[in-house]
């Protein structure tokens, strides 16, 4: 009987280890946190994240549009690999692969104000002299405008070149400050993410938007992992939110290491 009782206890412990804790949510920035900048998720990281989904609720929170998130996270499979996928800071939200929410920058500001913002950005960029300029300087998304001084069609080498130049000359920081000052009456906010661009959106439409889609009555802990957590970075607001336990990471390997310590 003692032996049977011992086996029963071992079984309970095994079930406990295997069962998913729905009271804990882990949210992840994509670029620089789960993947190297603008690169695809590694096989090692993908397998690791699938193991994590068996333990806690997992959501992706990217500043990019859905197609770019899919491109980096292994394609269409990411929509069902993870419990939540929040594109554009959560302004486009999916749960279990189903669309549950969409917010629109255009509807919020209207065509006239939207064009005014875009025209100012294009004029500002026309006066910039950079190591190089390519194409696609403005990318209009559902919930925000992405502004890229070097142009999103730049090569990986040109991307790295601009990022190094930006770190020295603060091109994006000064540009973002100019946009916020010019349109202070519009309650605009700019955040810097990735290596080459920054996002423009109404104040409050940052990554905290994703939190509204979580059932707070059932959740005890929300963890967020991101690399751009400094003020002005696109992970800052959610990282410092009082509802969230923030974790700053340096790269995907650091993300895995921190997760191992917490959940494995």
Automatic annotation (TrEMBL):
Keywords recorded for this protein, A-Z: Cytoplasm, Isomerase, Magnesium, Metal-binding
Cofactor requirement: Mg(2+)
Catalysed reaction, written as an equation: alpha-D-mannose 1-phosphate = D-mannose 6-phosphate
InterPro entries with a match to the protein in the record: HAD-like_sf, HAD-SF_hydro_IIB, HAD_sf, PMM, PMM_cap
EC category: isomerase
Active-site annotation: 29 (nucleophile), 31 (proton donor/acceptor)
Principal location listed in the UniProt entry: cytoplasm
MF terms (GO), sorted A to Z: metal ion binding; phosphomannomutase activity
EC number: 5.4.2.8
GO biological process terms held by the UniProt record: GDP-mannose biosynthetic process; mannose metabolic process; protein N-linked glycosylation
Function: Involved in the synthesis of the GDP-mannose and dolichol-phosphate-mannose required for a number of critical mannosyl transfer reactions.
Subunit structure: Homodimer.
Protein name per UniProt: Phosphomannomutase
Organism from which the protein derives: Hydra vulgaris (Hydra)
